[in-house]
User: What shape does this take?
Amino acid sequence: MQKTLPRILLLILVLLTGCIGGFQYKIYKISGVIYHQDSEIPVVNAEITIIAGNKSFPLSSDLEGRFSITLRTNITKLKLTVQHPGYHPWQRAINLGKDREHSLLIELTSMVEDHSLVAGRIDYALPEITAAGLQAYSDGLLEPVLTETWQEEPAEIIVEPYKYNEAVALEIGRALGSDIFQLYPESGIIVYIKPEHLTVDAFLSLARTHPLVKAADINYPVYPLATAVSLEQLILTPNDPEYDQQWNLTAVYLPFAWPQAKNKTTVRIAVLDSLIATEHPDLQQNLHLQDAYNVLKQSQDVSDYHGRTSLIPSSHGTHVTGIIGATTNNARGIAGISWGANVEIIPIVVLDENNRSSLSNVIAGIDKAIELDVDIINMSLGANLNRPYDHLLYNKIREADAAGIIMIAAAGNDNQLLYPAGYPEVIAVGATTREYQIADYSAADGVTLFAPGGARADPGGGIYSTDLVEPSGDGYSAGRGTSMAAPHVAGIAALVKGTYPNIIKSEIEQLLWNTGIVFDLEQPQQRLVNAYAAVTKTPINMAVLCFSSLDTMADYEVEFDQNRYFHLFLPPGSYLVTAHIDANQDQEVNPGEWYYQSEILVEPGKHVSDLEIRLDIYR
Assistant: This one.
């Protein structure tokens, strides 16, 4: 002990002073931007290596040619090297000295001085939305709920006991001073209402120390993310009379996807939401009420009715369900996204008649979906959690993920990513408008997949779907919100699963993103779901991009990166630019395949830095 203590004191001294061998560690920031020589054209994906002593730190330049790193070192001199195909290597020694920040402007020189730079992006074309269906809807309207409208203090906790029975629930309740509790027998959890004299945090702490309690968490409120207020064989066009109101289906290439979809297997979709109009004639074909479940009533009663909507003139669950699975081509109402797949939509009610809920209901709903062995769960709802990865909800999410269930959730409104969408095991879906912009209410940070959700300011820019706005319970209304975006992805995932029965959860998730369309070139990680490319398994990385000289007949094939950016150096002249995804590998351009063609002129000493290549469907 006497020998150990001086060593510990010495180690503490070293850590406090940041000194080893008499040299003090300092924090330095090294940043820069890399351009093509004599231009402001950024060099993307340049390989940067910073060498400090015997350590090296690899970096790469972003879409603006920028890079940055913060180092803690006692080295006073660094070596920085930059490499990129087609450019001469660049290197420089950096003396750190007293300056803690070093900003560099680096210009790379082409290896072929008589060639010009051609750079740009490759992607799918964004479908042209016609003017049909842009009139205002009068039947009803769903608007996105903003988080500022539901910030009340939680008053309940969820308890998971080691042993679950009513006697245990009573004993825990007495110890906590809570005489009011709700049992969830199928999920093995109990919800307690806190006594008035305790804060919810104090109540939670008390529960966690009880010897019969395995785990406990706050029962945060949950809300739907929208609520009620006053051509040939390539394309299938359904005969539903309101189909021309559904601009959102064209926006994600569904008319092209439907002919390619197959019903090789039954796809079971659990919709965790509010009560739905089970008698709605446009929902009859795809509803699977034998397995329906009402978490709140712990029964199979999931039916909504028009009288209930006198105060809330719309049914959130009915609207969401219609987007996924309204009966298509039945000469009635609207078209559902999952047309062509054999789907069973299972309503699981987790929202009460006022569209309010709590996480205990969502946990129980997910648990029920796991029990029913569903393929997909749609959750057009969300909650704001302080410690999301410590919550019981995350345990249930991981359990569903382990079961291979595809989970899709509305990303959130008021520009805030909510949960369960925020978990990596869940596909978070943000909302876009008819103009292919992120809706002003939609969460965006941390969201990579988007679908139509409607514009708040545009009276004709909503998502048209089934609702309870008529006394007969068979009406339709427009909705706006990330609640409306999520079921687009759920329906498209069902088309993919039905067409490829053996495809697994991770493959579908990756396919949806790899086939997504970049709608904002400054944000290549954010993509609009593309039903046709997903169903045909034609991700953009399968495209062959070629520049063919019209002067010398030479071909220049070019690769592009994961952000779909490309660059090459070409001798001056005229070029035919082609891009093609050869889906059947027959070396020909066939109707229905993704294709692009144009001519460009490459002039001596003039660089092309913004060439945009958008593949369309060849017809």
About this structure: The longest strand covers residues 26-36. The domain at 231-499 is CATH 3.40.50.200 (Rossmann fold). Residues 17-22, 132-141, 227-232 have pLDDT under 50 and may be disordered.
